[in-house]
């Protein structure tokens, strides 16, 4: 028993970080979710990843602290650093993100930016004078706040500071900690933010279009935590949700209002304009000392944290792509011998997903090719001057079937001018678009077979990794 108590004391486990059955599995789940989300961002298969079970920002290297056991924020940032030269950490929990700041206090590759209550309040760190050390000097940003912080004041300082941080630091990825104990009415907090004010900060970070890992954090009035994270998730994925609470198994928890947005209290805001302006000026002055683009020595990137199942799935995708394109090539040769004759439309190599096909083949711009949050697909036909947008309808039970019927409607509306049998098209230089006045000779092809091939290709866009989509797009460009 004595040894057991000694180990508990050694790792600060016991009072605010109690031991419970399943603790190790709990830490594994939320920490691996943040690491896996960061790996998704690194691979380009997502623009925004949400892990509301994470955000345990007080955990230290050798001890638990403040209800936090394993600091998934630090682990997620370390994963992001495998691909991105600079990572920005933003914390809007009412408590200072001391564990994350401590982990990166001496590096210029990570900037930590925390908006929190300061003074006689846990964890007691996060003074404005805490700006980093050594190479990390000026890369720790702390905005100490007082009780009663309201929406107008908080969003004002947040936008002012984050805009300057983005300008001077230019991060390649962001980890946003969305602790909701800064909301009005929280059992442990003393701010007066509404869910809309809290979410405005999330929406502002999203507006920079930088790969972002969103994690949870504190929040001790559970029904308000659920309200805030639900609303913020809707903003992140671009879905409008009603204020009236829909009936569900937990409907009674949200009474008596049964609404998403609640009024704030009438507590006094001790953050005077003069105080906030003084803090902003000091932070802006520190940010002017930041290197515009911190240099990073060349090094071999560490292996990704992608799980083995994903690697095996990617290998299977490559094999399927190779086999499918061989089948398509055989069908195209069969179509050339079929004897059916139609007039081929003008076939200039247009841009795919806002890029030239050559850029797609070179994998130059993953994020411009695919918006994973909106889940949209651009199909560009040779005779079109602009791309056609095919959104996924929420009620569609089968995305493949939905894409198939949308492609049918598009092709019927455009007159069926796709010619995939013309040798001149197949052998054209993908990186050099043809001139609009370049006429293609008439070639015979089976329109139904051509559309069947196109439909098969379209169907294969669904549920694939970004790398495989890029590879497949380049091959489709060769056929077109």
UniProtKB/TrEMBL annotation:
Residues 14-233 form the Histone deacetylase domain. Its EC number is 3.5.1.98. Residues 304-344 are annotated as: Disordered. Gene3D superfamilies: Histone deacetylase domain (3.40.800.20). One of its GO terms (cellular component) is nucleus. The keyword Hydrolase applies. The keyword Hydrolase applies. GO terms for molecular function: histone deacetylase activity, hydrolytic mechanism. InterPro entries: HDAC_I/II (IPR003084), HDACs (IPR000286), His_deacetylse_dom (IPR023801), His_deacetylse_dom_sf (IPR037138), Ureohydrolase_dom_sf (IPR023696). Pfam families: Hist_deacetyl. One of its GO terms (biological process) is epigenetic regulation of gene expression. Keywords: Chromatin regulator, Hydrolase. Residues 307-334 have a biased composition (Basic and acidic residues). PANTHER family: HISTONE DEACETYLASE 19, HISTONE DEACETYLASE HDAC1-RELATED. Belongs to the histone deacetylase family. HD type 1 subfamily. This is histone deacetylase. It comes from Phytophthora lilii.
């Amino acid at each position: 028993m004595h040894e057991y108590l000694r180990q508990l004391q050694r790792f600060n486990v016991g009072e605010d970080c109690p031991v419970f059955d399943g603790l190790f599995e709990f830490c594994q789940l939320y920490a691996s979710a943040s690491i896996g989300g960061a790996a998704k961002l690194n691979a380009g298969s997502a623009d925004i990843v949400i892990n509301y079970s994470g955000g345990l920002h007080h955990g230290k290297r050798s001890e638990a602290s403040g209800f936090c056991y394993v600091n998934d924020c630090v682990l997620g940032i370390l994963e992001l650093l495998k691909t991105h030269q600079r990572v920005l950490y933003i914390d809007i929990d009412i408590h200072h993100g001391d564990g994350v700041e401590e982990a990166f206090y001496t590096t210029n590759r990570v900037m930590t930016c925390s908006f929190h209550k300061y003074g006689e309040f846990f964890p007691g760190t996060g003074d404005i004078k805490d700006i980093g050390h050594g190479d990390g000097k000026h890369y720790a940003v702390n905005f100490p706040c007082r009780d009663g912080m309201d929406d107008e004041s908080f969003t004002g300082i947040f936008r002012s500071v984050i805009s300057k941080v983005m300008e001077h630091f230019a991060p390649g990825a962001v980890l946003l900690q969305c602790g909701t104990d800064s909301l009005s009415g929280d059992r442990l907090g003393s701010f007066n933010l509404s869910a809309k004010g809290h979410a405005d900060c999330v929406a502002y970070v999203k507006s920079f279009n930088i790969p972002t890992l969103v994690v949870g954090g504190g929040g001790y009035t559970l029904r308000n935590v659920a309200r805030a994270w639900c609303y913020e998730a809707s903003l992140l994925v671009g879905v409008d949700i009603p204020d009236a609470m829909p009936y569900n198994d937990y409907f009674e928890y949200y009474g008596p209002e049964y609404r998403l947005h609640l009024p704030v209290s009438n507590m006094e805001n001790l953050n005077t304009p003069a105080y906030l302006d003084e803090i902003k000026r000091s932070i802006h002055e520190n940010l002017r000392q930041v290197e515009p683009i911190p240099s990073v020595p060349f090094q071999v990137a560490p292996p990704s944290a992608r799980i083995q199942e994903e690697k095996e799935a990617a290998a299977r995708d490559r094999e399927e792509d190779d086999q499918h394109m061989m089948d398509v090539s055989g069908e195209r040769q069969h179509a050339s011998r079929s004897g059916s004759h139609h007039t081929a439309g003008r076939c200039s190599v247009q841009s795919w997903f806002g890029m030239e096909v050559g850029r797609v083949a070179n994998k130059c711009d993953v994020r411009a090719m695919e918006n994973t949050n909106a889940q949209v697909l651009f199909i560009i036909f040779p005779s079109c001057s602009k791309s056609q947008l095919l959104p996924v309808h929420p009620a569609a039970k089968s995305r493949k079937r939905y894409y198939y019927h949308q492609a049918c409607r598009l092709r019927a509306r455009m007159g069926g001018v796709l010619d995939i049998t013309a040798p001149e098209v197949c052998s054209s230089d993908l990186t050099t678009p043809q001139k609009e006045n370049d006429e293609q000779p008439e070639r015979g092809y089976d329109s139904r077979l051509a559309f069947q091939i196109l439909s098969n290709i379209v169907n294969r866009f669904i549920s694939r990794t970004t790398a495989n989509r890029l590879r497949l797009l380049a091959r489709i460009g060769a056929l077109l």
